Write the structure tokens for this entry.
Amino acid sequence: MHSYHEQLQTHALNDLTTRAKSGIITYGSVWLIIAFSYQLHTIYPSFFYLNTGILLGIFLSRITHFFLLKRNSTAQISLMNQWLVLTILIAAAHWGFMTAWIIFDDRLAELRTIILIITPAFAIGGACNLSISSEIRTLYPTLMFIPFIGTLIYQGDTESLMLAILTSICLLYIFTSSKATHNDYWAAITNHMVAEERAELMEKLSTTDPLTQLKNRMFFDAEFAKEWKRCSRLKCPLSLIMIDLDFFKGINDNYGHVFGDECLRRVAATINSKVARPTDCVARYGGEEFVVLLPNTNIKATAMLAQRMIKAVADLELHPNNNDTIHITCSIGGATITPDFKADQGSLIKTADSALYHAKGTGRNRYYSEDLS
């Protein structure tokens, strides 16, 4: 079971990876369109191959990260998050320095207008879309803008200085906008997880007996109907045992209901400990009566489990006070059937209940069963 913090981080990493997928293709596509439109591979091959190689390396790193995370979405969350954030920031820094190079190098003068349009668009879109990460929210636009803002200031002409000032204002606006989207995202994801936890808790409370922490009658009824259909379809046996504590009223009368409740808790835990399979269902049926549903279990295996329960309950040492030690016993009735869709589901419960009364009527602290298969 992951901690609440780990669940949040895992959810955020998956969301960030999903949002960043478009960038894997966008950067390379835009670069290649610009490069081939302006014949950079022939006019300025060193510039073309250097930037293409860097973008290819970033692309391969991101693709590797994506498939590793998809294969195992819970492995090394911190490392995977650092990997993703680092490659995104490297891409931003590369594009920022490439923009600065284009502005500075007169051989690339034809590209200046289009690159000054594309770079702010990338910075704004990336910072807001990827604002899940506080590092990306601030560093992504910074790494894109600062290199070419510095270049514009270095050039020193009026137009360049004006562009540097306007771009700086744009950067401040991006910080403000991305902070708002960052806060909105984390508020939404936190509220969503809190709502899920509350829903799970409410579901658990609605199906759990508050005293014994076993499943309650409502859950048993639903599980019984489901297993009846499943066993009918598979043509496999379905067994049911009903357990009733012997002379429990006397314990309540002699020692009080508080001790009686403690007895029920101890017996419930003991019964539940003998049921190993997750498909089996142990529930409090009412009062001091418990029921165990055993799918795909024949009458012989049911009898063996019931005998273990009888012995385990009889071996319990209960202490109503500092001086006394008492023991309690239980009677168990069982029934086994190979269900059929057309048969009456209630017949299994009635037969197990009848077997229970037979066990109590013939001396208690024993098991009796009937086979309806």
